[in-house]
TrEMBL record, chain A:
One of its GO terms (biological process) is amino acid transport. It comes from Umezawaea endophytica. It is a multi-pass membrane protein. One of its GO terms (cellular component) is ATP-binding cassette (ABC) transporter complex. The chain crosses the membrane at residues 20-40, 72-92, 104-123, 135-154, 235-260. This is Amino acid ABC transporter permease.
UniProtKB/TrEMBL annotation, chain B:
Keywords: Amino-acid transport, Cell membrane, Membrane, Transmembrane, Transmembrane helix, Transport. It comes from Umezawaea endophytica. One of its GO terms (molecular function) is transmembrane transporter activity. The chain crosses the membrane at residues 20-39, 60-77, 89-108, 120-139, 183-203. It comes from the Bacteria. This is Amino acid ABC transporter permease. Belongs to the binding-protein-dependent transport system permease family. HisMQ subfamily. InterPro entries: AA_ABC_transptr_permease_3TM, ArtM/GltK/GlnP/TcyL/YhdX-like, MetI-like, MetI-like_sf.
Amino acid sequence: MSSVLFDVPGPRARFRHRVLAVVGVLGVVGLLGFIVYRFADSGQFEPRLWEWLQYETIQIGLIEGLLNTLKAFALGAVLAMVFGAFFAAGRLSEHAIFRGPSSVVVEFFRAVPLLIMMFTFYYGLPQVGVKMTPFTVVVLSLMLYNGSVLAEIFRAGIKSLPKGQTEAAYALGMRKTQVMVLVLLPQALRSMMPTIISQLVVLLKDTALGFIITYEELLYYARFIGSQGQFGRPLVPITIIVGAMYITMCLLLTLLANYLEKRNRRNKKVQTAVPVEDIAPAGATTGA
Amino acid sequence: MSVLTNFSSLFLSAFGTTLKLFAFSAVGSLILGTFLAMLRVSPVPVFRAAATTYVGMLRNTPLTLVFFFFTFAYPLLKILKLDPDPTAIVALTLYTSAFVCEVVRSGINTVPVGQAEASRALGLTFSQMLASVVLPQALRAVVPPLVSTMIALLKNTTVAAGFSVQDAGSISYSLSEAGADTLVGLGWVAFFFVLLVIPLTLLQRSLEKRWSVAR
């Protein structure tokens, strides 16, 4: 890896790096060794703490928890996208009547912590007679918070395009909606895709907050299993398992983002390489 | 309004706890995150791999799970007993430092390679190069996103309420125990958070605007 900070190492630097590498390996091994020692010493390797994983009902329960997490994620993601698109359009509007309220909504829901929002819906609203299931509360809060963040992402994406794009589209006689749908959005979406997906990773992680308001997702099930005396309260094993599940899901999404980003970069090269051929037939058709 | 006046001491102590959690974990995560970023740009592969693994794990784990681990699982390992408040600080620090690390690292990477090469050609030592060439330029790219990370941290402190810390998120629990109007109380909590976050957002925007022009 070529870094900004370092020159190509000479013999003395290479020796120093080797010494540091040994120190680093010792440090990592020491840390891992300490963790394993603590695990062994506090009896976390006892077979009884791990045997429950073989039971089918527990496996099904884990999968159900996972499905509940994914359900909240999927619905929340779709709704947040719609919410974001709507309010981004509002903030980009030329009319102050739409711009003002959308800005207030977006700024407000971005500033309020997600958990406070969930508490308000779950503990606050029943006082005025509005009762919601934990699932609805989680999805609604995820929509409001992540939707507001996505609205900002959409807006920034549209704003980052060169002004000439809009001007040229208007000069061709397009209407406002046409400019947005045919010219701005296709370009902006491509550059925004990685950012959108990393926000979806945040959304996926935020579903875990549902645990605090008793939504029966993955962590809730983990707590349930962890409190079972008959399995010896396997809180450490279940945390590791659930953690691995979350990390895998998020990494898959991140991989998708990286893949899109890479493809994106390639596309740009193509765009700058062959613009002439692209423009010529388009000009011909509009001419005819 | 009556909720706020009747429970003013509750609000004060709860937001005091929130600010305490924020202050400690902000300092902690800045130090740990910068240290991790140093590891990630170091020329020694083991250091890089260790820091990358740490960041990859923590960034892809929900904060709630980190809290879950430190509240329920960690005490079983019998390493060092922690009260709920320090537990929350540890969880927030470990989680946020991964994000701080990424911000600092990408900030250092925005400095063109030629800058470091030129300073070496001028005969600057490593620390001179860091102090007078690379870091001042990296700072411009680091500080605005760092403020965003800190805003996220401030909001994330509320998660501690789910794990028996008496912070601003826990106000609703205390209010419903006292039989007060939780909806109004939560409205006030949200309002105070907006009040705390908006100055930080404005700071971040002005820094971003000023420094993006200067670059």
